[in-house]
Design brief:
Blueprint lengths: L9 E5 L2 H4 L37 H6 L14 H15 L3 E5 L2 H4 L10 H16 L3 E7 L5 H7 L6 H16 L6 E5 L9 H5 L7 H25 L4 E7 L2 E4 L4 H23 L6 H8 L9 H7 L4 E5 L3 E4 L32 H15 L3 E5 L17 H19 L4 E4 L22 E3 L11 E3 L1 H11 L7
Parallel strand pairs: 1-2, 1-10, 2-3, 3-4, 4-5, 5-7, 6-8, 7-9, 9-10
Antiparallel strand pairs: 11-12
Helix pairs in contact: 3-5, 7-9, 9-12, 13-14
Length: about 475
Amino acid sequence: MSSKFPKGFLWGGATAANQCEGAWDVDGKGPTTADTAIFVEKNKRTGMEFFNVKSIEDIDSVLKDTENHYPKRHGIDFYHNYKEDIALFAEMGFKTYRMSIAWSRIFPNGDEETPNEKGLEFYDSVFDELLKYGIEPLVTISHYEFPLGLTRKCNGWLSRETVGYFERYARTVLTRYKDKVKYWLTFNEINIIGMFGYLSGGIVGDNSPQTLFQAAHHQFVASALAVKACHEIIPDAKIGCMLARMESYPETCRPEDVLKSLETDHNNFFFTDVQVRGYYPSYSEKIFRDKNVVIKKEAGDDELLKDGKVDFLSFSYYMSSVVGVTPVENEAPGNLFMGRKNPYLEASEWGWQIDPIGLRITLHKMYDRYQVPLFIVENGLGANDVLEGDGSVHDSYRINYLKSHIEQMALAIEEGVELMGYTPWGCIDIVAASTSEMSKRYGFIYVDLDDYHQGSGKRYRKDSFAWYKKVISSNGEDLD
């Protein structure tokens, strides 16, 4: 297949601080929601382990818990191994590396007047190491690790007060790294605040629609303030938003099923409609009416949303799903958050259905809707990789998954979609976001740690490492 990827296409990989850094209480870092995510054996999981804190009173007991295992406190110790890991990224030829800054490394409780210099110095060192190899940092300002100090003080994003603390944090890192970082994202998968208040919002005790949509409004305002600050402080930088894209198909051609699929799109695109277009979409009135939600705004909020529109739209894409209005008894969901199984698709070991053409569909939907550059910042296959005695890992299944998605990306570009780059998720093995396990591996690099943080921590190149290196060097032309 002839490559359609433009010159300067940003090939790379993606991680998040809370899943890779470790060193959760080192050099002044404060605790976050991620540090309370408990590990539970597979046969005992509920899928809600990141809700281990259910009240403000739970925080201290969970942080002092020495009987249970909290994997994100350890990660893969990127904090002390970043030079080795970045050298491996450079060996693959990365043009960009998507990472996040841990808010509580910069402001340990989230509300301090002055930042923690040790935290700032760490990211200075990481960015310097990336730039040494010509790798552009793509930095997420907030990625699933809300400072627990602000959970105690404000109950997270439920409070308007949090907007000011976030703006201070955003302005601090934008100013500090203005000569090192040219690509920024505000919130990771911002739509998740509409499902889970604690994970990305630091909210405990209330997951009502009223609470979650009010918190989302505060994040919209905070995002707009960060966009305006970025344009002011780093005029040549680009700052985007990030959505967990949930492509869905109607179960049948029955009009009610088609309408259900449209409503599912509305629930998903609502978040990026606000951030990219700069205003609440007309259909949001029906959503709020159906859910008995009344958004409290302050004077000037609507103007701020218009002034703080993002420069590009980034998103995660792992799977598609099927929706319909007819109840189906005793059928497990086809994927993580929603929908039923699609009989035309295969699934991963974790039940996530594999749909490369769905990525092409979603690229067209997004570009037609917004007409701004797109960036796929998460995509990949979680699998239970096996480290062989000679240090090899044969992950042809991962190569096949990524190849099929890249082929569809190329076709979308040929068909007119403007795509900036591609950063497969977990380019080095990290702790899984939802289950806090190491067994679910996404990386091109195997990290010798198990679910209980036992192992050498040594890094090994998988078969996909050499394959992705070839993909990058050929700008997507050589996918064999």
